[in-house]
Amino acid sequence: MKLSARLEALVAMVGAPYPHIWDCCCDHGYLGYQLLETYPDSVIHFVDVVPSLVAQVDQLLTGTTLPPDRWQTHCVDLKTLILPDKRQRYLMIIAGVGGDLMVEMVTQLLRNNKHQSLDFLLCPIRQLYKLRTELNQLGLGLVDEAIVKDGRHFYELIYVSTGSERKISSVGDMWDLTNPVHREYLALNIEHYERMGAQVVNPAHPALQAYRKMLRC
User: Fold this and answer.
1) What is the pLDDT of residue 40?
2) What percent of the chain has pLDDT over 70?
3) PANTHER family under this entry (predicted)?
């Protein structure tokens, strides 16, 4: 199964061995299926709130030779999920949703699973600055991060953990401005916040200031 550059990067960033990896908002299950092949010692959980999608993934996996104890499907609102074993370390992968919704999901997962060791691998499609700021406020720490270009679109991968004390930068510390992809993405972010600033009384948005500052580093 050929994955997009974004999904390939998510699979590659899973660094530590996890007993359980949760592919949240799993859609058609492509990411989770690749995780099954790449991490044979992990149980992969496919989670989505849409019953038809979960049924489709369940049918797909049932038709394979994969052992049934290697995967589980769950039709559930992620914000209500209570993880089954507090002794386990879990990786929660959330991709393809906006930063605002992602913050809600992470906040509720932390609230519903207190004192649980949780890692999050996040790939939002909007509101990166706000998401990063609020992840810090939730007490999470950075594990890894990256910029990925997939076709005409850019994505940030943000890997955070309840067990890390490394501060999460509001604009990221993964930039390499000798890389033309990174420079193109930075220019797009600056243009975005300049357009936003033209619509308000005070254009000095902290995100715009932070992105512009990187050009002077």
Assistant:
1) 94
2) 95
3) TRNA (ADENINE(22)-N(1))-METHYLTRANSFERASE
